[in-house]
Amino acid sequence: TIVDEITLMCGEYKAAIQQIKAAEGIETMNGHLYRIWYYTPTAAGDWIAHAQYGLILDAPEFQELLRMLKKKCWFDF
């Protein structure tokens, strides 16, 4: 069950962050899992979707992805 999602579009980049409860067979300590979908453009004008999961938002690799998206998209959350 997706309980919250923020979709971001900015120029050549778009992304969505989702907060998921007990979804897709993944259990977490606090019952929440965060997933960021981010999309990169192709030369043909299509989008390639990528997903990254983070059990906690301060996980280093998750923060790195957030930094990249913030730098490209100028958003904050």
Task: Describe, in plain words, how this protein is organized in 3D.
The protein is of the alpha+beta class and 77 residues long. It has a single domain, classed as Nuclear Transport Factor 2, Chain: A. Strands 1-2-3-4 form a four-stranded antiparallel sheet, with helices on one face. Strand 3 and strand 4 form a beta hairpin. The two termini are 21 Å apart.
CATH class: Alpha Beta
- The shape is flat
Tally of individual helices: 1
- Structural class call reads alpha+beta
Largest sheet: 4 strands, antiparallel
Please tell me how large the radius of gyration is. Answer: 13 Å
Helices and strands in order:
Elements: E1 2-10, E2 13-21, E3 32-41, E4 47-54, H1 60-73
Task: Give a short overview.
The protein has 77 residues and is of the alpha+beta class. It contains one helix and four strands, in the order ββββα.
Please supply descriptive tags for the structure shown above.
77 residues, flat, 4 strands, 1 helix, 4-stranded antiparallel beta sheet
